Amino acid sequence: MAPAADKDCPPHSASQFHAHFATNSSTAAYAAAASPVAPPLHPPASQQFAKSLFDSLVRGTHLSNELPSTEAHEYARTYPHFSSSMGGISQQLTDMMASMISNQHNPAAAATFSSLDDVSDKFDSMVDLSDKLLERVDAELDTARGLSHVRGDARLLSHCAAAPAASAGMPLPFGRPLPAGAAALHTPTRPPNAAVMPTSAHSAGSASRPQLRWKEEIDNSDRAFVPKLRAKPNALVPLQLVLQPRAALTTASGLAPPLEAYANPYEHEICAFKPSEAQLSAPVEVALFSPVHLSQCIWIDSEAGLSTLRQRLASVSEIGIDLEQHSYRSYRGFVCLMQISTREEDYLIDAVELRHSLHLLNEPLTNPAITKVMHGADADVLWLQRDFGLYVVGLFDTAQAAAVLELQSYSLAHLLKAYCGVTPNKTYQLADWRIRPLTEEMITYVRENSHYLLYLCDRMKQELGPQRCAHVWQRSTELCKQAYTITPFDADAHLTLVRRQKDHLTPQQLAVHRALFAWRDDVAREEDESQSYVLPNQLLQQLAKAMPRSVEQLQMIPLTPLLSKHSAAIIAAVSAAASAAEAPASASGSSATTAPSTTLLPQPAGGCAPILTGASCLEGRPLQAGIPAAAAPLFPPSASWPLPVHPMQPALQPLGAAQPLQLRTSQQL
To answer: HRDC domain location, by residue (predicted)?
Structure first.
């Protein structure tokens, strides 16, 4: 901090930050690494570089936080030294970021970045570049895992999942008991003569794409989901599949027609469930939970172990359940891990390895005499149906209990801290649960999600009392009634993203946004990737604004490797949508005798109607006469006027309740 007596420096000047930025060796190393001629870094050097860079960034962040902001910043700018220092730092940062962009084989984009005046535009450019680099890292890691997959033995994953070491607790005749703290998963063993798993990779190459090993074919279409139920244990009525009426279904925007869907096969049993007196009342004395590190943890990755677990669960009256899903590298997502806790043990079930066998657990899960305690089961009950054909009867949801108790927060983290004095580590909330073997930290995290649920249930029942406890059971039962259905692709849902971005788009840009939104969904289905992986929302918005119609224009925008592979398709989609959006404008500017043009955009996935644009497809037709929803969205009767105008349709005007609503060209209006 500069001395207060210095008239050229404000009380909080940039001199320290400037000196650190200009002289720090890590910053210099970073700039050198950004250069195309930088020498390659070998593992020891790269580790040292990463540590040095991180320390430098932490120091720089601390110093930047000391800089004045808002009104204090305006005052500080009146000091010449502060102003000149900040100007120098800004230029250095701009040059460094431009160098990073240029190093990605895109000099034109670097020049564009340097010419940007708006700081927010520069920030968006760096966010896009960061996304691209992270995607590249992910792709390289996938490649590395594939190269490390020696001998192609996928079963090696299960052997590496845990060591058959002696457990600190009571040994069980199935599964793989783990020592206290689940350390066995941190130091896995391997069977004799098996290929050694490289320590630098957490899993074999197939673990990064486990869906490639599934027995069933991946179906990402919009066909109705057929329940996977093979048998119906604990049934009150025989198994039958019933289609729901379309009127009970909806889509994202409410405009596209919903698909048919099957009802919950256990709906009758769920509706018939009534909690017993024991389930409604709290225990006289609540038994304190055992610490996680002193409890036994059992890893289940074989069908034999799963069958024995099913028999084990039949002997208890309550279990805690939680799931871990992966959704980034899959179109619909899939469950990777299932945790089941009793009063004595925690069971970790490899849902990737046992995907085709987990239906065996329907017997305990649909047994109304066994209380299933879950937290926030809204999505979990649907994931169980989608992946394994599992259904739940007799659910007590602690999130619903928190809502009935009107607690300060309904999150599991809040409940664990309030009732158990446990602060969970949120670092692993977004972990990649496909990885095998799991680390000790990951094991601790997933165990905490189910280990304390039974204790939470007891404590919350005490506070609820019988009447409010019955209300929690009722609310939890409503969650179990849900049936997993396929949400059809709705091209008009792209407007939700546009509104969320709070960024004005011209009608032409909006048409491009819609076309890329549909194209992204097509590619995600084909590649079995998430839409966010194929084309992040921020990058979708940027492409819609830029409307690149050539390779040179597209290269101005940082792209992921997957998008670079589809660059020709992107340019084609952008060009078609932009040209189609130009047609109405050119038609309105021509003479009245000129026939308005009509253009057909590429048909989106999921069987949606073709996108007709231009005045001729709308002129003089009543709204209820079957105009494609993509071209003329329908609005509910309660919608207030003036209605939002879609860029591909002329203005809408109310013509009176007794008259059919007409769509007319701008010339007629």
So the answer is: 506-584
